[in-house]
Write a structure and sequence with these properties.
The protein has 136 residues and is an alpha/beta fold. It is built from 7 helices and 5 strands. It has a single domain, classed as 3-Layer(aba) Sandwich (Rossmann fold). Helix 1 runs parallel beside helix 3. It is globular, with a radius of gyration of 14 Å. It starts with a strand and ends with a helix.
């Protein structure tokens, strides 16, 4: 199973956001144990670094957190074609659209997110962390 992990799920773990931490951590554990293949987009890596640094007020901590993510998930390249495809959709949220386009072009089975409604218009299946975990 190929999973694109949305930024919000990663942030749940990295900054220990309750009540979401446990389920999101279990998703990453599945990736870590190679029970599923976990991915993030290249653009999400920069978002994660920025948001974690802002939340923790530490560049060092942001690098540690990103390193943790990079040890578990593989980064998918966002191609010129992905950006053009997302752009032509003129979606309300370009960032979510680009993530969905990248997930589809890399044949991901699902996007794992807590904000499923954000992806309804993009023709790719989504699961919440809890829904994914119920399948295991």
């Amino acid at each position: 199973m190929r999973l694109m992990i949305d930024t919000n799920v990663l942030l749940d773990v990295l900054v220990k956001r309750e009540p979401f931490y446990e389920a999101s951590r279990e998703v990453l554990r599945l990736c870590e144990e190679k029970k599923v293949q976990g991915f993030l987009s290249a653009s999400a890596a920069t978002d994660i670094f920025y948001l974690v640094r802002r939340h923790l007020h530490s560049t060092n901590s942001a690098y540690k957190c990103l390193g943790y993510v990079l040890d578990i998930l593989k980064v998918l390249t966002v191609t010129n074609e992905d950006v053009i495809n997302a752009y032509t959709k003129k979606a309300h949220d370009f960032e979510d659209c680009l993530l969905a386009v990248c997930a589809a072009s890399n044949k991901c089975d699902y996007i794992i997110t807590r904000n499923k409604r954000d992806f309804e218009e993009f023709n790719i299946e989504t699961l919440s962390p809890e829904e994914l975990l119920s399948r295991f």
